[in-house]
Amino acid sequence: MRAVVLLLLGVNLVSAATHTLQYFYTATTGITNFPRFVDVGMLNGEQISMYDSTSQRKIPKQKWMAENLDQQYWDSEIEHLKGTEQVFLDSVQIVMSRFNQSAGVHTWQLMYGCELNDDGTTQGYGQYGYDGGDFVSLDKNTLTYTAANPEAVITKHKWEANRAIAEQNKVYLENECIEWLKKYVGYGKDTLERKVSPQVSLLQKDPSSPVTCHATGFYPSGVTITWQKNGQDHDEDVDLGELLPNEDGSFQRMSTLNVGPDEWKKNRFSCVVEHQDKTIRKTEKKIRAKNETSVPIGIIGAVAAVILLVVIGVAGFMVYRKKKGFKPVEASDNSSNERITDTLISSGSGSSTSS
Predict the structure, then answer these.
(1) How many CB atoms lie within 10 A of CB 5?
(2) What does the pLDDT look like over 101-160, one tens digit per residue?
(3) Which of 36, 241, 314, 328 has the most CB atoms within 10 Å of its CB?
(4) 34 contacts: CB under 8 Å, gap ≥ 6
(5) Phi, then psi, of 169 in degrees rounded to 5
(6) Where does the record place the Ig-like domain (predicted)?
(7) Residues 6+ away with beta carbon under 8 Å from 193
(8) Are residues 324 and 249 in the same domain?
(9) First CA to last CA distance, the chain
(10) Residues spanned by the domain of 53
């Protein structure tokens, strides 16, 4: 289960100037008491819908989703995902055989979605991953696939032999996905355009421990945390943590300054948090012990957020890979008759094809 948690810490959290619609399909094997297939919908980094193979229901995770979409929408989504579920469960077994694996905890994942920037430009992407690593990605401009390792080259060649699916995926990503993204942004406008300033605390376990600057409860996600030493910017011995979601849809982030107690005594340090048009400054006089009852609320929110992501199976690592770039590999095909199914990545399409 630890490996699953590591996948989630890189979940994509977008800037206020970009709107994103993303779907994550995850098939698992070897994990007890966990759904074998999960679909999660995300808008601007916030969960908006969820389907799992245990309940076989797709449900809204935002009030405005429930208020604006009728039952026919949810029923059609469920029918589509039931078919996709079996495709993914079969595929994870096939990929396991590619790596000569017959047991253990393994995941087969698809991340796809689109982005709408404030200047009107758009992007679309679709990537498959296995066990938290890249496997195959769609290049919608050339209608080809990029293999990330030798085991994926077979899949690349088989999927490229059926060009029609790549063409349909391209149409979806460039048109229908953007249309739905605009609809969802309109439905959740009041929530998505809210502005909430962060609560900032300086935390320290004991006088000899590093000091952590913790900002939590802010929205939107864009925040800057910096340190100053005697009034001057200081970026040495600083560890900036990941941006994480809270259960209420707000965000949190930490920055830790690793200096010894003597350094603290000789200098004047402060943490500066900038969010929207507001700047919050905390000095060493405001340090709290991490075991104070008033402090752990945000930290508990972080743990809860990670647990929530584990439960819903979001493949955040795939988003992180997409941002860094997909590294291809070239290798010769072999005569294997194994078949992995490429799912048409349009939500509600109900289509898939074998290659």
Answers:
(1) 12
(2) 999 999 999 999 999 998 899 999 999 999 989 999 999 999 999 999 999 999 999 999
(3) 314
(4) 28
(5) -60, -40
(6) 198-288
(7) none
(8) no
(9) 32
(10) 2-191+308-353
